[in-house]
Amino acid sequence: MEIDEPVDILHFIPVLLEIIPEDQDSLRKALIKYNDKKWNQAPELRVGLLWVEVKNILENHVQPIDADWKKKLVLSFNSKGRSS
Asked: DSSP class of residue 47?
């Protein structure tokens, strides 16, 4: 069984931003602000703990999952991110 390399959350936030519609200002701003503040974090945090913080941002902005873009966002995050 092949194990995927951990993904740096700061490299993955731009992928999430591509999925989020432009009119979702609050969510987009929250992710951009988070990304800008965490650029100098240790690599081990960027592939671990910081995923949980981004998950919390997403949970605060996309629930309920009632649009196609939200479904795509959750699937993308869970496929590359941490589903914990």
From this structure: T
